[in-house]
Amino acid sequence: KEIADWLMWSNEIKDIIVVGISYGQGMDAWWSRRARDYTHCNDTVTAKGWFKSTGGADNFLKFMKNELFPAINKNYRTNQDSATIMGISFGGMLSSYVLFTQPELFNGYIIIAPPLSWNYKSIFKLETEYFSNHKELNKTVYIAYGTLDDKDWIINPTDEFIKNIKMHNYNGLNFVPQIFEGETHISVYSTALTNGLKTIFKR
Fold first, then answer.
1. Exposed e or buried b for every residue in 31-58, given b needs 16+ CB within 10 A?
2. Composition of the chain by helix, strand, coil, percent to 5
3. DSSP per-residue letters across 122-190
4. Cβ distance 155 to 183 under 8 Å?
């Protein structure tokens, strides 16, 4: 939120409302519930046995759609046409999942360092299925990672994901990939978020 506050203060982005979803019960709960809510399926390959529960993304999105969005729109002056989702790591994978399964939920997507190797690159299959039925994708999508991130887990599958989306050349899609030299899985966050916000909410 502080990054967005400074960008708004300096008139580098439009005024926005930042909504964060927290579990509020310490790091152990944060790790386990993040893995549960931000993953769209179980991983039977790379991350098998790493987390107690995974694959709860659809329930999490139901909560956002049926409870969170109505509460925000009721209590705040919002512009639903500019709704944007941002996520790093599992959050980036969740954003990618939403983009090709429920794209109507958001108009902007900020995807940072997503572990797209998850479960045999299952996100790739979803993107291919989406393209087989849709040639338009009227969204702004910003995707980024750092060059010091893990090659197998993040870099290589993200490069392939970017290549596939470019190849499909969706009508109406504003697609902005960016790679940051010398940044890790963690350090890339602030830089990528800044650039993502400026891409989507530029004045």
1. ebbbbbbbbbbebeeebeeebeebbbbe
2. 50, 15, 35
3. HHHHHHHHHHHH-SB---EEEEEEETTS-IIIIIHHHHHHHHHHHHHT-BT-EEEEEEETT--TTTHHH
4. no
Q: List pLDDT tens digits, range 120-177.
A: 999 999 999 999 999 999 999 999 999 999 999 999 999 999 999 999 999 999 999 9
Q: Per the structure block, which two tokens stand in for 143?
A: 């995707």
Question: Which DSSP category does 13 fall into?
Answer: B
Position 89 scores a pLDDT of 96
Query: Three-class SS of residue 109?
Result: strand
pTM over cut 0.90: yes
Q: List alpha helices for 23-63, DSSP H.
A: 26-38, 57-63
pLDDT at 136: 97
**Distance separating alpha carbons of residues 4 and 142, to the nearest angstrom:** 16
pLDDT (0 to 100) of residue 23: 81
Q: What amino acid is encoded at 68 in this protein? A: L
pLDDT (average), residues 66-85: 94
Alpha carbon separation from 107 to 43, 54, 104 (Å, rounded): 28, 26, 7
